[in-house]
Amino acid sequence: MPFRAINADPRVMEFFPSVLPPGDSDTVFERIQRHFERHGFGLWAAEFRENQTFIGFIGLAVPNFDAPFMPAVEIGWRLHGDYWSRGLATEGARAAMRYGFETLRLAEIVSMTVPANLRSRHVMEKLGMTHDPRDDFDHPLLPEGHPLRRHVLYRIDRTRWEASGAVKRRLMKIGATQDSHHPC
Ligand SMILES: CC(C)(COP(=O)(O)OP(=O)(O)OC[C@H]1O[C@@H](n2cnc3c(N)ncnc32)[C@H](O)[C@@H]1OP(=O)(O)O)[C@@H](O)C(=O)NCCC(=O)NCCS
Fold first, then answer.
1. Per-residue pLDDT tens over the stretch 123-141
2. What is the pTM of this model?
3. Separation of 121 CA from ligand 1 center, angstroms?
4. I want to staple 13 with a disulfide (CB 3.0 to 4.6 A). Which of 19, 20, 42, 99 is the partner?
5. Could you say which DSSP state residue 62 is in?
6. Cα 96 to Cα 80: distance, rounded to the nearest angstrom
7. Span 32-47, pLDDT tens digits
8. pLDDT band at 165 (very low <50, low <70, confident <90, very high)
9. What is the CATH number of domain 2-180?
10. Is the CB of 122 under 6 A from ligand 1?
11. Whose CA is nearest to atom 29 of ligand 1?
């Protein structure tokens, strides 16, 4: 199963406590399913457009732990290593973010990772999210002293998202469609 392979790859899981054996990967899959049933949204399966291959997940989730920034909805991603650095996480995350702000009418979306996960932080920055070191926190599901316990938090609120041009880009697209039907 492709999801098991992604979760068993040490490169993909570099910033997680361990790679996942098949049983643990299945548990994550079931947790994602339950999240959809409970909240109506979640970590969507990401398919590569050209060949319809399943390459991972990108989406929105309610964290299952307590922290100073809770309650919150986070945006997250995990893709097969063969598909990295083509802008795919950013493309999918933009769509997920639009869904969060336009359809779910969220006031804010957060994202989190360990400080060393520069790839993921770069995606957050490309999405217009900002990092205030005062929001950094120790992940409560990891024991004290664990090297991955410290986390950085990124945020974006709806006002900033609207100002980032994401809404304008869509309006321009509508304008272009109308133009193409114009008799002149
Ligand atoms: C994080 C992840 C989803 C990014 O996916 P992706 O499709 O490669 O992301 P994108 O291509 O949209 O953007 C990545 C950006 O990081 C840049 N990047 C790549 N390696 C980097 C590095 N070592 N340091 C800093 N930036 C880096 C890329 O060049 C790209 O930026 P650019 O578009 O300005 O060139 C992917 O690496 C992944 O699945 N990682 C493992 C799981 C994970 O860590 N998930 C996040 C947990 S919070």
1. 999 999 999 999 999 999 9
2. 0.92
3. 8
4. 19
5. -
6. 18
7. 999 999 999 999 999 9
8. confident
9. 3.40.630.30
10. yes
11. 85
